[in-house]
Structures are given as structure tokens and as C-alpha cells.
Amino acid sequence: SLLYVSQWGATQNEVVRFDLATGAFVDVFTSTGVPNGGGHAWDPDGNLLVSDTHYYRVLIYSPEGELLRTLGGEEGHGPGQFGLVTDTVVDSLGNYYVAEYGEYDRIQKLSPTGEFILQWGGHGSEPGQFMRPQNLAIDDEDRIWVVDACNHRVQVFDTEGQLLDLWGTQGAGLGQLSYPYDLAFDTDGNLYICEFGNHRIQRFTPDGESLGCWGRHGREEGELHNPWSLVLDGDGRVHVLDTYNHRVQRVRM
Q: Could you write out the DSSP letters of every residue in 10-61?
């Protein structure tokens, strides 16, 4: 098994593959552009989706790093045009959901062939609006979960963009959030959220009840400095992209 990490470089940006068991470097591939800061996801065919933030597009790779397809690439507010792309997920029917931040703050739904279907959101703090929808997750019922980072909350939608649930308040206490940047489900349906502002990982039930935290601000082992992303492996271990410490940490909560 492999772990895929986007890395910003001085002259180019890359997707680096590491051995999941040992953390050893395997290889690296560079896109035709640069995968600059966006999220990773997998489609039902096992291909890697890289949200290429500052090039307004989604790049779809084979697991070996062959570029298969590009969605978007044109900046704009129109249907099928993109702003600053943060993350992309795919539902059980093969439809794409693409999140954008900046002046866009929306989610667009595209068909399996990349055609625009609908969009929702808009800049703001009202229910259903966003202030940097940083990352997405989709559950077994095709509900789209969004970490609404600068509103310090989680919002849940159906595939038509209808709001189903909303929870979270800003703060450093148990159950509160500070710039939630990523989220992932475990096999029990609980949610792990990476908090960029609180330098920690927090585990929640689906209805927003906190089950505990791990991490604090610092550079020692077990400490984090603005963690950007996380992923769970098949053994339930959490891999945290400890961004400003320039490393990945693996823990079990």
C-alpha cells in the first residue's frame, strides 16, 4: 500500500508516493501543471483526483501517475468554470463534486463525463453558505460532508445541494473547531477532523459529539504545526499531514 502526498517545491510541485508500512520514499511524479495545495481523493475506478487549486482544475491520474483526464482549467464564475479548487469527491453514480474558495465559495456538481449539473453555496455565514469549503467527504448514503473552514463548522448536503445538517462553533474547547481543514470517516462512521487553527485532530460522532482530541502545537513527536490534511488507512490508523513541520505523522486514536 502507498501514501500519496502533494508537495510544494521551489521550481515545481509534485505528488510523492511513500510506502505505507515503512514511510520509505517510493517515487514521485509531476503533473503537466502543478498540484498546488488542493485535496486528494479516489474515484470508484481507483484513480487519484488532485484538486489543482491555482490552475482552476481537477487532474485525474492513474495510481502510477499517468494523467488520464482534466476537469476545468478555465477561471470564472460560469457553469463548469472554476475558482480556487480545494477538493473533489465522486458519488456512487460517478458524479463529481468540486469545492472552490475565494470569491466563489461554492460546490459544483458535474456529470461522470464532466458536464455541469448544478451548484450551491455562495460566500457567507448563513446555513448553506461557505467561507472556504476546504475539504469534502462523501458517505455510503451519498451525503456530502464539508469542512467550512473559516466558518469553523461542518455542513452536510444531499446530492442536490440541500442542507441536511450543520454543527460546530469556533473555539479551542472539546467539541469546538478552529479552521477545520480536512475530514475522514472511520469504519464505524465516526468523523476525524484536522484543525489547522487548533493544531490537533478531533474525533466526532456524525451528529457532532466530540469523542476526544489528539495533538497540540509544537515540533516534537506528537505535536503539530498547522496540520493541513489527514487520511485513515485500512487498519484505522490516522496519517496527518503536519504541514509546517514538513512531515507526516501516523497515530491511532
A: SS--EEEEEETTT--EEEEE--SS---S--EEE-TTSPEEEEEGGGTEEEEE
